[in-house]
Amino acid sequence: MALNLSAADSALKEDYQPAIREQLNQEIMMLNQIEQNTRDVEGRRAVLSIHTGRNSGVGARAEGGTLPTAGSQQYKEERVGLKYNYGRIKVTGPVIRAMKSDSGSFVRAIESEVSGVVMDLKRDVNRQIFNDSQGAIAQCASVSGADVTLTSPTATQLRQLEIGSKIDIGTVTSPTDHANGSEITAVNTSTGVITISPSASAGVSSSDFVFRSGAKTTTDGTTHELIGLQAIVNNSGTLYNIDPTSVTLWKSTVNGNSGTNRAATDNLFETVIDDIGLESGTSPNFIVTTVGVRRNYASQLKAQKRFTDTTTLKGGFSALTVDAGNVSLPLATDRDCPNNKAFLLNTDHIMQHASSDWEFMDEDGSVLSRVSGEDAYEAVLFKYHELTTDRRNVHGRIDDLSES
Questions:
Q1: Which residue, among 388, 403, 308, 302, has the nearest Cα to 345 in the 3D structure?
Q2: pLDDT tens sequence across 263-318
Q3: Is 371 left (phi over 0), alpha (psi -120 to 50) or beta?
Q4: Per DSSP, which regions of 242-302 are E strands?
Q5: How many Cβ atoms sit within 10 Å of the Cβ of residue 344?
Q6: C-alpha neighbours within 13 Å on the C-beta side of residue 30
Q7: Which of 24, 44, 190, 309 could serve as a FRET partner for 99 with CA atoms 20 to 30 Å apart?
Q8: Helix (H) or strand (E) holding 110
Q9: Averaged confidence pLDDT in the chain
Q10: pTM (2 decimals)?
C-alpha cells in the first residue's frame, strides 16, 4: 500500500509562518483627530473661564440724558473632571518561556499582548468619543434564556457589541440589575439578538440598556466613560456644570426632521453651517458621519454630475470635501459614529484634557509585575483624560439623515 497523506499525517510538520494576519478593524479615525489637540491638566480637574455675556451698559441717549447703567462682561466656570481608562494584560510564566522565539510561536507573548491591549483600549475610547451622557451601547427589549433582544439596534451598535466583550445590563441608575460582567458569545445581526453567558435575569425591558461592564456607577447613574459628542454637540443638557437654559449661548445647533430621514444634501449642510456661523461668528471645519450617510451624499453629487476633491486627514484618513457657501469642509467617516447623524465640528474647539499619555503603570520601576501567589505577570495600561469643548456653539449636528 502506498504511503499517502492520511497515513503520514502524524509524521509531517506544520510550518507556522512568523506573522499574525490581522482580521480586526483597527481604525480609530476620530481619536486620531482629537489627540492632536490636547491640553495638559495637573490636579483633579481643569477649570476654564467661559465668556457668556456682554456689558449691558451701552446705548444711545439724548444730549444731557442719563448715561446707561454700568454693566459688565459675564463669565462662567467650565469645570472638566478627568475620566480613567484602563487596559490590563496577564501572561503566565510557562507561556512567556514557550513563546521566547518565533520558532515556537507566532509572536512573542509580551510584545503581542502589550501592543494588542494598546490598540484595544484605543478602539474602546474611539467608541466613547461618540457617547451620549449615559454611555449606553444599546437599548434592550426582552430576554429569553441567554438571548437578549435589542430594541431596533443600528449597524453601529451591533458592531460595538463584539463577541468576547464583557457587558452589564440594567437601567441607567442601576446598570447591573440583570447582568453583571456577562460575556457576549454570539451576535445575530439579522434579528438584533445577542447571546450572553451567564444569562441575564428575567424581566429585561425597554428601560434596560447594555453597558461596557463596570463603566457605569450604581450610585448616581453617571458614567465612568468619556463625555461624548452626542452630549457635547447638543442644544440641551448641562455640560461641564454649565446649564444652557440659563446660559443660552452654551448650546450647539441641532437640525432634525422629527425622526423622518432625508437626503444629505449641500443645501442641508450649508443651512447648518450658516446657523452655526450666526450663533458663534465662526464656521465648523470638519464633518464626521457614517459610511452610509457619506454614500448618500456622494449619490447627490453624482446626480448633479459633480466630482469633488478629497482631502487627507491626520492619521492618513481620506475624506470627501463639502463645499457650502464660502467654506470647504472635509467629510470623513468613522465606524463608531451613530447612524443617520453627521457632526459638524470646529476642531480648534474640540479637545482632550489629559494628565497622562497612553502609559503603563511603572511607578515601582517595572511595567511587568509579578502576580502574587501565581506563576504569572501582569501589566496595566492607563490614560487619564476627558473630551471637552470650550465653545459649544461652534459645533452642529444633523439628525435623521438617510443611509445608502
A1: 388
A2: 999 999 999 999 999 999 999 999 999 999 999 998 887 766 555 556 666 555 56
A3: beta
A4: 253-255, 286-289
A5: 29
A6: 29
A7: 24
A8: helix 109-129
A9: 85
A10: 0.84
